[in-house]
Design brief:
By secondary structure, this protein is of the alpha+beta class. It has 9 helices and 20 strands. The protein starts with a strand and ends in an 11-residue tail after the last strand.
């Protein structure tokens, strides 16, 4: 496999920055996901790694070798597209074998490798069929097989599950992760679906407006988001974000409520905000619970039933909406008042002006 290094890599179309200078190292056998909304620059980044897009600045290294301006065929990288890109007039077998035939691999070796990868992906019974007669999930398996059969140094995948329905997405998500663990393949995976990224990736690169917002493990970006964008984007739903004011060692919240600040945070807030400063309090829906007398009080605005649990939408005094995840047995009719206690271990604080997370000082 391979190590991929991006050093100050950027892309500009005319005067429009598509990717601002970014540094990223994808380690050997690592699965890294580029995550962000449409137009944030993640696919452009993937295309620059593959050589399908030229860089405007910076360097790309593959196993220490500078491939910044190398032809795609010289990079030993396999690319899986969102819309399969299969040859409709060829059978599944011919589609999978095509890269090896182009490299003039011996016929016996081609048959051996196509059979191996087809068995691995459980599509041996489909090899005589053409793409038009296959389901979306099976077409994606053929596209994956075509990439795998080459045994490249690294795999690049551009939203490969985006065209599938929910059932196929879940199935193929597990399939791709299983293949990664089996092959120890260095992989870069582009998606706008944060559930996909959280479930599959060793590390996530969160992007927005052509810039990297945060790089970290799924746990890092979920529990310790770098800024308000990451806090809101990661999670289903995202983190609750409530405007507050730090006063005399406590945080004043809407409705004249006060949130006790954990001792480990007091010095940090005083040093970074002073004794009196605006901030944003963030906490995940599962970090709150209904109690008789809580940190915040709100009116039940809506209720989502999600099988094993329910998601309560509460309207606070300043009309901010927060979401709280509760057991499905909890009864909270719309219009009633609910008191919520917030687990202090999972509270995070953000600068109200810069929107950057405050880092707890040692």
């Amino acid at each position: 496999m391979a190590t991929i290094e991006l050093r100050k890599v950027e892309k500009v179309f005319g005067s429009l920055p598509a990717v601002l200078p970014m540094d990223l190292t994808v380690h050997d056998s690592e699965f890294v996901s580029l995550l962000g909304p449409s137009g944030c620059g993640k696919t452009t980044t993937l295309r620059m790694i593959s050589g399908l897009e030229t860089v405007s600045g910076g360097k790309i290294l593959l196993n220490g070798r500078d491939v910044t301006f190398a032809h795609p065929s010289a990079r030993d990288i396999a690319y899986v597209f969102q819309f399969y890109a299969l040859y409709p007039h060829l059978t599944a077998w011919d589609n999978i074998a095509f890269p090896l035939q182009a490299q003039q691999v011996k016929t016996d070796e081609i048959h051996k490798r196509v059979s191996e990868v087809a068995e691995m992906l459980k599509i041996s019974h489909l090899l005589k069929q053409r793409p038009g007669s296959l389901s979306g999930g099976d077409q994606q398996r053929v596209a994956l097989a075509r990439a795998l059969v080459r045994r490249p140094a690294a795999f690049l995948m551009d939203e490969p599950l985006g065209a599938l329905d929910a059932d196929f997405r879940e199935q193929m998500r597990a399939e791709i992760k299983r293949l990664h663990l089996r092959l120890h393949a260095t992989s870069v995976y582009v998606t706008h679906d944060q559930v996909e990224a959280m479930a599959m990736a060793d590390r996530i690169v969160v992007m927005s407006n052509a810039a990297v917002q945060q790089i970290g493990t799924p746990a890092d970006v979920y529990y310790d988001p770098a800024n308000l964008f990451v806090a809101n984007f990661i999670g289903s739903p995202g983190m609750n974000l409530v405007k507050g004011k730090f006063v005399d060692g406590t945080v004043q919240l809407p409705g004249d409520h006060r949130l006790g600040v954990p001792e480990s945070w007091v010095a940090t807030l005083i040093n970074q905000l002073g004794k009196d400063g605006d901030l944003v309090v963030g906490f995940r829906p599962e970090s709150g619970e209904m109690v008789a007398d809580g940190d915040v009080t709100g009116e039940v605005y809506a209720v989502d039933m999600n099988g094993s649990d329910s998601l309560l939408y509460l309207s606070l005094a300043d009309k901010t909406i927060i979401r709280i995840r509760v057991d499905r047995s909890v009864k909270a009719p719309i219009g009633t008042v609910a008191n919520i206690r917030i687990d202090p271990k999972y509270v995070r604080f953000f600068n109200a002006e810069t929107e950057v997370a405050l880092k707890r000082e040692a």
